[in-house]
Structure formats: structure tokens, C-alpha cells
From TrEMBL:
InterPro entries: DDH_dom, DHH_sf, DHHA1_dom, Oligoribo/pAp-PDE_c-di-AMP_PDE. PANTHER family: BIFUNCTIONAL OLIGORIBONUCLEASE AND PAP PHOSPHATASE NRNA. It comes from the Bacteria. This is Exopolyphosphatase. One of its GO terms (molecular function) is nucleic acid binding. Residues 233-332 form the DHHA1 domain.
Length: 335
């Protein structure tokens, strides 16, 4: 957590005349959007205005959240996003640990910005900013935003909008409260958010009960060809670009697919490989159980990183070559 001195300094930065921007990572997920909008609504309760900027578009199943339509998508509104970052007095950096994680467009803007930069994030090895709240033991940045509000002694400002956004972020990044990092403290915070107006049934329905025919077709395709190696300990799933096009892929359609591999009895690692829809690289998602560290594995071999049990990567070979390389590396590293 921030020190008491840092909290005092941050509080002095949060005044009505200051221009505040909240930025999250490339390909924003539920925790990225939930924590960003939750913080925006909290600042609004304090009488402050803040712009939320995301590098690129985010899934439709997250667009029900309060004021999600006011999010500035840098890919679509480059000038507006760039000017907001350039003119900002304070920049909150949420759910990512280094400027380059916000992409080739927004990342350099963050580095050049004159603003005071405040990091709130739970990924390993954060870069150095003016103020850093980094804790890899906490399952979601949305939970960290709630802790930040507590440290400001302003829990009384948490309203229904804040509660809905932060609940969504915590729910999605804990896999529905299933992941090992979910703690008793997490559940106490979730209980507080429910008391403040978050409706678990509504949020779950809006966020997860959103299957489309195209998504189910893609899911059926990869489930029909899951490959299991290493005596059943490693599951491999993949999708090619032409398959995405064939079934009308939309952003967010493959969210959670990697978890199906990890749900197989005896599996300790799941890897999902997908050709990018437009560029010649492979997007990779890793998940693991127990002490199997896919964060370091991804950092070492696949240009990525994340958490011990959940990480991503990017590879510049064909999907066939990528899977071959993965099998070789996994053979050498684990079990």
C-alpha cells in the first residue's frame, strides 16, 4: 500500500482544478475496465472529473457498466486521447506494470507526459513511477482500488456505480472467486460492495451470460481438438485466423477459452494460441495451478508475463512453429 506520507501527497493532488486521466492496458479486460470506471466514479463522488483512456476497444460484455460509453478509445480518438494525456496533471496507471503494456500508441505518451503518475497494479516487476502501489498477492486491481479508497478514509463515498464496477473487476479477475489468490479479505470487500448496491446476479448475467452463436462455434471447434501432453499435465488449444473469420469473431469471443484446458482432471498448465486477426503474430494465454510459474515461463520464452498462475505472451512465428516451440520449452521446464 502507499505510505501515509504518499497518501497525504496524493490527496493534495486530487483537487478540482487538476486534470486527471486514468489509463489501463492494451486489450482491456474486466478488471482493467472495472477498476478504471470504479476509480472514475469515486473521483466523481469527490467532486473531481477524470477521463478514462484505453488503448484499444474492449469487449461488448463490459459495455453495460456505468459511463462505459464515455471511455476514450485511443485507437478511435487518437487526438483526443493524446491531448488528454499531454495536458494531464495526474495520471492513474491501473492494472498494468509498465508503459509499454499500454501499446505502441499510448505507451510513449505516458512516458512523455509531465503528469504525476500513480500506479495501482498487481502484476510482477512494476516500473518506477512517482507513486507505486504494487501487490502481487491481491487477485484484482479493482480490490486494490477499494483498498486505496479505504486508505483515503473515504469508504463512505462508495455508491452503487462504484460498487458495480469494482465488483465486476474482482469477479472477472478471480474467475468467479475460484482462483487461489482469492482471500477472506476479497470476500469481505465483495460483501461491502453488495451492501453498497452491487447486484451479483445482474452483474454475472450482464458479464458472463453473453454467448453468441459465433463464440459457441469457436468454442466447439477448439474443444473438439484439445491436445493433452506431458502425461495429461499440459493442455493445448489453438485457433487460426481463417477460423476466426469463418465464424464471425468479435472482440472478447475467446475470453476464458484457456480455462477449459485447465479444467481437465490432472492438468496443471493450459496454453491457448491464436493467430492475430490482422497481423502476423500469435497471441498466447497461459494458465496454471499450484506453484507452476507461467509468468516467468512466458517472460523467458514468449515475450510476455503476468502472474504466477496467469500470463500472456506474443510470438512472431507461425502457429504451428509456436506450438512446436512451446512443447519443447514445456518439456524442459516443468515436471
Amino acid at each position: 500500500m502507499f505510505t501515509s506520507t504518499e497518501i497525504s501527497e496524493i490527496q493534495k493532488l486530487l483537487t478540482p482544478e487538476k486534470k486527471i486521466v486514468i489509463i489501463t492496458h492494451y486489450n482491456p479486460d474486466g478488471d482493467a475496465i472495472g477498476s478504471s470506471l470504479g476509480l472514475k466514479h469515486f473521483l466523481k463522488q469527490k467532486g473531481l472529473e477524470a477521463d478514462v483512456i484505453v488503448p484499444n476497444d474492449f469487449p461488448k460484455f463490459l459495455k453495460w457498466m456505468p459511463e462505459s460509453k464515455q471511455i476514450i478509445i485511443a485507437d478511435y480518438k487518437r487526438k483526443q486521447a493524446g491531448e488528454a494525456i499531454y495536458n494531464a496533471d495526474v495520471i492513474f496507471i491501473l492494472d498494468f506494470n509498465a508503459s509499454h503494456r499500454s501499446g505502441n500508441l499510448v505507451g510513449p505518451w505516458i512516458e512523455k507526459a509531465r503528469a504525476k503518475k500513480i500506479l495501482i497494479d498487481h502484476h510482477q516487476q512494476p516500473d518506477d513511477f512517482h507513486y507505486v502501489y504494487s501487490d502481487v498477492t491481491i487477485p484484482a486491481t479493482s480490490q486494490m482500488v477499494y483498498h486505496f479508497i479505504q486508505e483515503l478514509n473515504e469508504e463512505n463515498l462508495v455508491n452503487k456505480d462504484i460498487a458495480e464496477c469494482l465488483y465486476t473487476g474482482i469477479m472477472t479477475d478471480t474467475g468467479g472467486f475460484r482462483f487461489r489468490s482469492t482471500s477472506a479479505t476479497t470476500h469481505r470487500i465483495v460483501a461491502n460492495l453488495i451492501e453498497k448496491g452491487a447486484d451479483p446476479a445482474m452483474i454475472t448475467s450482464n458479464t458472463w451470460d453473453t454467448n453468441t452463436v459465433s463464440r459457441l462455434h469457436l468454442l466447439a471447434l477448439i474443444l473438439g481438438r484439445i491436445e493433452v501432453v506431458k502425461d495429461g499435465k499440459v493442455a493445448i488449444l489453438w485457433l487460426k485466423r481463417d477460423e476466426l473469420k469463418e465464424f464471425g469473431f468479435q472482440k472478447g469471443d475467446t475470453e476464458g477459452f484457456v480455462n477449459y484446458g485447465l479444467s481437465i482432471m490432472g492438468t496443471q498448465v493450459a496454453a491457448f494460441f491464436m493467430e492475430d486477426l490482422y497481423d502476423d503474430f500469435i497471441k498466447i494465454s497461459f494458465r496454471s495451478k499450484d506453484e507452476v510459474d507461467v509468468n516467468q515461463f512466458s517472460r523467458n520464452y514468449f515475450n510476455g508475463g503476468g502472474h504466477i498462475n496467469a500470463a500472456g505472451g506474443k510470438y512472431m512465428k507461425t502457429i504451428e512453429e509456436t506450438i512446436v516451440d512451446f512443447k519443447e520449452k514445456i518439456e524442459a521446464e516443468y515436471f
